[in-house]
Amino acid sequence: MQNKLQLINIWFRFPFSDWIFRNVSLELENGIYIIVGRNGVGKTTLLRIIAGILKPQKGRIYINSKEINSVKDAVKLVSFMPSSPYNMIIGPTVYDDIKKAVKAFNNKLTAREIIEFFSIEHLKEKKVFHLSYGEVHIVALASVYALGTPIILLDEPTVGLDKKYREKLVQLLRKISGDRIVVIAANDLRLIPIGQKIIALNNGGIDFIGDPKVVFYNYLEKIGVGISDIVQFAKKMKIESKPITVKELKSEILRLIGDSNARL
Ligand SMILES: Nc1ncnc2c1ncn2[C@@H]1O[C@H](COP(=O)(O)OP(=O)(O)OP(=O)(O)O)[C@@H](O)[C@H]1O
Ligand SMILES: [Mg+2]
């Protein structure tokens, strides 16, 4: 099913703060979207607004044409995985947890199917408080998926994960985004290449929204990304020549962007 999330002319601020969002509009369909921007710019706030947890002072939010004014309106449409998902899985075992999530909104899939889909059969009888940090993230994602909502919001899902679990998480995100809208707030710029679109926030709103390659070209310098992130990005984009100098990397990136006149 094609889902649609619409934010229309959103204005938001906390009491006594400046506007965090001034007249922000956004329309998303199924796929993965990565929200980037400096610490404190409003990434988590945007997720909370979409989930109905924070109410904008002005503007409207629609999910599949239903207007969202509170958590109650959003509860069957949006699930939100916070940056420390420990307290969102209740157990006692992984299987129990996923079963409860499945039952909550009558997901079409069974707990068994979800466990298989996420390749976590080896964890299913484990007590949730025995899980490792990485395992908690994967189980929390399975649990969120089990709720069956068309929109999944993830706040910094890769924090503290090693390479193996980060790659597993990315693989799972790709798997689940076919029929859902997945919005990820991320300081981990290694996630940029998996985004269908990148939403870059700056003071008061969306500074830029677009293709990851274009973001790379237009934006990374502005948000102060270091060279290791660039190398990671280049690897993900399958730039083959290794080892690569910064100069070669720049020319490869310009080639990827397809603009030989561009300056990087
Ligand atoms: N409940 C609150 N009351 C007042 N100000 C808040 C509240 N929650 C967040 N803020 C402020 O709103 C701004 C945006 O916060 P938010 O958590 O959305 O940033 P972020 O982009 O997610 O940052 P980070 O990258 O550090 O996670 C920050 O300046 C923060 O201090
Ligand atoms: Mg945040």
Question: Can you walk me through this structure?
Answer:
With 264 residues, the protein is an alpha/beta fold. Among the domains are: 1-77 and 152-161 and 182-211, Rossmann fold (3-Layer(aba) Sandwich); 226-264, no CATH class. It contains nine helices and ten strands. It has helices at 43-50, 71-74, 94-104, 111-117, 133-147, 163-176, 212-219, 227-236, 246-257, and strands at residues 4-12, 21-29, 31-36, 58-63, 66-67, 78-81, 151-155, 181-185, 197-202, 205-210. The strands form two sheets. It has a six-stranded mixed beta sheet with strand order 6-7-8-3-9-10, sandwiched between helices. The chain has a four-stranded antiparallel beta sheet with strand order 2-1-4-5, with no helix packed on it. Helix 3 runs parallel beside helix 5. The longest helix is centred in the middle third of the chain and has 15 residues, at 133-147. The chain is globular, with a radius of gyration of 19 Å. Bound molecules: adenosine-5'-triphosphate and magnesium ion.
